[in-house]
Amino acid sequence: MIRTTLEDAVLVEGTLRLTQGFARWPASAMSKLLVSARLGRYARGEMVSIEQGIPETFVIVSGHLFVGHIPPGGRRTPVALLGPGYVAGFTRTIDPEGGEEEEESRIIYDFCALNDVTVVRMPTLLVQKILDDEPVLWKGMARMLMKQHRVVLDSLLSQGVGSFQQRLVATIERLAVLYGGNAGKGINLRLRLTQKDLAALLQVTRQTVNQALGVLVAHGAISLNYNAITVLDLDALRRLTDSP
Questions:
Q1: Has this prediction a pTM greater than 0.70?
Q2: Given the DSSP bridges, would you call strands 228-231 and 186-189 parallel, antiparallel or unpaired?
């Protein structure tokens, strides 16, 4: 659902000013963008964006999104998790010369709410036009995109390399570093991440995840409480990365 109020407008500009790719935009450029920028709020399970039709860029204000990978003729597979401050959709382009054959062969990504999510949505072509009109602004955007690309690449490697236990441990550690919050003696993953979600991310069964999490609990590395994972001993968790 998308709505615009005075309070929302303040939140939109405030979010963009705290986002590296937009932080140094002069007032003249920002005002052009704010005319078309909108705040969107979504509940768990709602589709926030899919790479079809007119391209949109969005910034995550709060909450977390599952990125889904849809190959031509295949089914959707969750591949990554994005949190607050991440900018998505910007790198998608439309080739005006491309025909239906090219469109049908293109891999599509979508973005689904893992929990309650708020995003700032903007027309990608407008963002690109403003950047082209003031090329110096591309520097901040490029640096931000490269940094974010590295984060996603590291996450994908941690999820896809090694034994299942190594991949699970590396994924939990990465989520703790990126999205964890202080929980007394531990680090609480501030995500409503179910075992089913974790299984989808690692492309295994929920039962496999359940058994592996039990091993981590037995080692005192984590604790489980409903859908919450708390990392009790980050060093112990990291040592388990070297286990077969």
A1: yes
A2: antiparallel
Q: How far apart are CA 34 and CA 149, in angstroms?
A: 26
Cα distances (angstroms) measured from residue 115 to each of 38, 132, 204, 232, 237 = 20, 35, 22, 23, 25
Distances (CA, A) of 111 to 66, 84, 117, 197: 6, 14, 11, 14
Give the 3-state secondary structure of residue 69: strand
d(CA 127, CA 66): 24
In the chain, the amino acid numbered 206 is R
The whole-angstrom separation of Cα 213 and Cα 216 is 5
Where residue 93 falls among pLDDT bands split at 50, 70, 90? low
The secondary structure element, H or E, covering residue 86 is none
Q: Please, which pLDDT band fits residue 99 given cuts at 50, 70 and 90?
A: very low
SS3 call for 18:
coil
The two structure tokens encoding residue 193: 């991440």
Pick from 95-99, 210-214, 223-227: least confident: 95-99
Average pLDDT over all residues of the chain: 86
Residue type, 16: L
Residues, the chain: 244
Give Cα separations from 226 to 8, 194, 195 (angstroms). Answer: 33, 8, 10
192: buried, middle or exposed (CB in 10 Å: 19+, 13-18, 0-12)? Answer: middle
Distance of CA 171 to the CA centre of its chain: 14
* Residue 20: per-residue pLDDT: 93
